[in-house]
Each structure stands twice: as structure tokens, then as C-alpha cells.
Description:
This protein is of the alpha+beta class. Helix content is about 40%, strand content about 15%. The protein has 4 domains: about 15-100, DNA polymerase, domain 1; about 105-160, 5' to 3' exonuclease, C-terminal subdomain (DNA polymerase, domain 1, Orthogonal Bundle), CATH 1.10.150; about 165-340, Beta Polymerase, domain 2; about 345-410, Beta Polymerase, domain 3, CATH 3.30.210.10. α10 (about 165-185) crosses α13. The chain is globular, with a radius of gyration of 23 Å.
Amino acid sequence: EDPDAELAVVSLPSYACQRHTPLQHHNKGLIGALSILAENAELSENEGRGVAFRRAAALLKSLPQEIGRAGQLRGLPCLGDHSLRVIKEVLEDGGCREVEATKESEQFKAMKALTGIFGVGPKTADRWFREGIHTPSDLQRSGHTLNRAQQAGLQHYDDLNLPVTKAEADAICLIVERAVGEVLPGAEITLIGGFRRGKQTGHDVDFLITHPEEGREEGLMVKVVSWLEAQGLLLYQKTTRNSYLEGKDGPARPPSNMDRFERCFSIFRLSAEQLRRTTHSTTDPSSRVNTDLHTVPPQSALRRSDSSAQMDGQVRVESSVWSQGSGSRSWRAVRLDLVVSPYSQFAFALLGWTGSKLFERELRRWAVHERAMTLSSHTLYDSRQKLYLRAGSEQEIFALLGLEYIPPCGRNA
Ligand code: GTP
Ligand code: MN
Ligand code: MN
């Protein structure tokens, strides 16, 4: 392969929602460097700078081949001066000083560690950092009063910072499905977020719940959450009735729909037994995969330990998460997000909660700047015609926006 070859791509459109951005891409080093700077900007609450680096990284993710030299980038959109400088340095020197300095900076490391606590955002983390608190242990020792979310976050810190596997998401899906079926027969549940985009791991599991008869979904969240709590499956939960007016992402919704959109941020207690049951019912035992403790293969967080299985007839659960230290664990904590949407808004909720975050931002930016429309997870408002546009599928929403349909696996911007 000739690194000096000009890119086959003549041009790429500038909005991420106009391009396919696959999960697997060809410029990991460059994207890694830009992502560190994006993360640092976000942790410093410099949103504009963060978005600029994210857009540049997303552009590189949508390229069909590896970049060998900066000349190949000529004519491509989304690459600002700063991003280009970083890219050139990585290509020429194999690394970028600003990126390395950021990675090693005490502030960056502390902000990452502290915002890694569920319930802690950059503002709080920054305040603590300036008080000399750099780690979760520092925080624990400090005697600071923490809210309920932060207490739970600190308590389950290690678990919540371990990636959630697809197998774990599937196990939780079965349980939430059961909860939903028990409290409201006919209700439907859809896996959203990163897993819907084809990711094999995530930082949480996201589900969207609805019922085909409009209105039946009202009060559903409280019932589902109560059912899960009664089974001892939630370690923490906060349920909010999302008033549209409070949202930053759209116009006021018609008063009749005012408090129908509900969401729940929770921490789920996933037992090894629940995971084992799902994995055994969904995977072919002949295709059993052996893994070491650090590399969990796609689709399977589990490995059967044949010797112990033969000895005591039991299956041991082993993966980086499930076997720690001497014994295997009987459960782990997993972040779980639930959203309930009325059927009439389902397509908008599905599109709005599938992500990625940058893809969503780009869709809304496209809508406003190119179509004079306002897109939210509830509706699409056309400000020229002064009316709300309805849609029954994601395909229809893309069409209303004048965009080619991008399937979830192409939304990994
Ligand atoms: P991982 O969980 O790390 O795999 O990535 P993810 O893409 O699933 O991210 P996350 O679970 O944080 O969010 C999933 C989707 O929900 C993203 O598209 C977000 O834009 C969207 N989302 C998260 N919070 C909100 C919110 O408060 N309002 C709305 N409307 N959407 C949100
Ligand atoms: Mn997610
Ligand atoms: Mn989420």
C-alpha cells in the first residue's frame, strides 16, 4: 500500500449526519489523539473546542482508508487549524506533544477519575480538584457530603468503570422485558444507545419503552421501576418526568403531551446467574470461546471452566469483570437508562436516543441551519410552515430532513 497515494475520496459532506460513520475505522492513532483533546476540552467545559475536535475525529472515522500524510486531507471539511496541526504532528513525529502533555497532566487525570464517579459532572469535579481531591479515595477520605447518586457512584465505582458487554446488555434486556410484560402487557422495549449502533461494549445499557396504544404508556415507568425494585434488582434509581419545557433540545411541546416523557437513570444489580442463563439460552454451546481474563470476545462475556464444570456440575463465570482476585463474583453493578415514550413520538425518541451524541448534535444542526427546522426526541418543527411534522419511522424523519437514511451502524460519529 502506497502511503503517498492520493485519497480516493474526492469530497465528503461536512455534516456527520450526511455520512456513514462505521464502528470500525482506519485512523485509530489520529482519532485517539483528537479524542484526548476533545475530552480535555469537555472536562474544562470548553464545549465549542470539544465539538471542533469531535467533528474532526468523526470526519476521520468516515474515511475509507488510512491517512499516510497530511496532503491527503486537502479539501476535506471539518478539519480546523488546531486539529490539522495535531494530525500533522502525529503523522510526522508519531505523536503529539500537546496530547502527551494532556494525558500526563494531573488535572486531566483527576478530572477523568472524578467525573468517572456516577453523579459527578465537570463543575463539581473541578471544585474538588481545586481543594486537592484527585481520586475517588481522596473524596472518600475528605468527608464531603455527597448526594444519593454520588454515594452510589462511589460505592460502585470499579464496576461502573468496567465496560458493559453485549452479553450483559442482553441479560438485562430479558429482565427488563419481563418487568415490562408483567406491568403492561403489549408494551414494547427496544435496545437503544451504543448497542443499537452495533457496539460490543458500552458504559451503560439504554432501553426505550412504548405501547402501541397511545396513552397506555402513561405511568409505565413508575410501575416498571417498582417491579424491578421489588425484585431487588436496582441499587439506585432516579426517575424523572421530563417536562419538555425543561429540555434544551426543542420547542415547547403541546400541553397535552407535557409530562408523558419519562426517564430513569439507574444502577442495575446483574447477577452471575442471570447472565449465565441468558448466555446459555442465546449462544451455541459448540461455539464456545476461550478467552483470557483481559480480552473478552464479542458476544460472550463468559467462559465455561470445563474442569470445574465437570467436577461440581456448576458453571463458573469468568471474565475480567466476573472473576476478580480469588473467587468469582456473584453479581456486578451496571448503569441502566430507561426512557418511556408515547407511541406517536416513538420514531423521534428512537432516533434521538440511538446516538452517537455527535451524530445527534449534527442532525439538529443540519435541521436548523439547512432546513429551518427544530428536531428533538419528541418532534420535528418546521418554522417556515409553522407546524409540527409527524413521522412513524426513522426513515421518514431522515426524508423530512432531506437526508439520505443512515442506519444505526453508520451513526458512530
Ligand atoms: P455508551 O453508553 O458509552 O456505549 O454510548 P452511548 O452512545 O449509548 O451514550 P449514552 O448512553 O450516554 O447516550 C445514548 C444516547 O442518548 C445518546 O445519543 C445521547 O445523545 C442520548 N441522550 C443522553 N442523555 C440525553 C438527554 O438528557 N436527553 C436526550 N434527548 N438525549 C440524551
Ligand atoms: Mn449508552
Ligand atoms: Mn445512557
